Amino acid sequence: MARYTGPKTKIARKFGEAIFGEDKVLVKKNYPPGQHGLNRRRKTSEYGLQLREKQKAKYTYGVLERQFRNLFERAARTKGITGEVLLQLLESRLDNVVYRLGLAPTRPAARQLVLHKHITVNGEVVNIPSFQVKPGDVVAVREKAKSLEVIQDCLAGFNHSKYPWIEWDESIKGGKFLHMPERADIPETIKEQLIVELYSK
């Protein structure tokens, strides 16, 4: 299955944000990668800013170009503010919900849990990371996977009240997806309006 497998720190330095989770290198080298990283002073064009924002969203959620465009087109057809709907669709992907529940330290790790059939939705095993979780769905760890060390380590001390659109249930090691998140509740620093402007050209 296609996904980005290149150097993650290089991408994080490009955007100046730890978009793949905690990045120690970014603390030391908070400037773009490359020979002239420290000396870049060129003004970015409007198109460049829009493209940068789209790329940041793609890398943050681990989505490839065609998937991202399909999600945007779906968001454009849906009632509401297109940019916000796009982020809601990204947030409701199964791999992202697993990450938000605190079952994995990063989205790529959450994706792996899903692919390895450790996650259930409404009691049924689902191994498709892009599966769209709907309000009312219950996402949990499969019974025989509850003792996995990676899951236990992640859940230790995790604040399950961080995201008001998910209700945690300790007994099932999972939670209920209550509703689509409001934009103010999504912590990502993505300027979604720039993405809408890019695709509207």
Q: Shape from CA axes?
A: globular
Structure classification:
alpha+beta
Query: Kindly state the mean pLDDT as a whole number?
Result: 86
Poorly predicted tracts of residues: none
Element order: H for helix, E for strand? HHHHHHHEEEHEEH
| % residues in beta strands | 5-15%
In percent, how helical is the residue content?
40-55%
Question: What is the correct CATH architecture of the largest domain?
Answer: Orthogonal Bundle
Q: Do you know the CATH topology of the largest domain?
A: Ribosomal Protein S4 Delta 41, Chain A, domain 1
User: Cα-atom Rg, whole angstroms?
Assistant: 18 Å
Cα separation of the termini? 30 Å
How do the strands line up in the largest sheet?
A: 2-1-3-5-4
Write the layout of secondary structure elements.
Elements: H1 8-15, H2 24-28, H3 46-61, H4 65-77, H5 82-91, H6 94-100, H7 107-115, E1 119-121, E2 124-125, E3 138-141, H8 149-155, E4 166-169, E5 174-177, H9 192-199
Antiparallel strand pairs: 1-2, 1-3, 3-5, 4-5
What key attributes describe this structure?
201 residues; alpha+beta; Ribosomal Protein S4 Delta 41, Chain A, domain 1; Structural Genomics Hypothetical 15.5 Kd Protein In mrcA-pckA Intergenic Region, Chain A; 2 domains; five-stranded antiparallel beta sheet; 5 strands; 8% strand
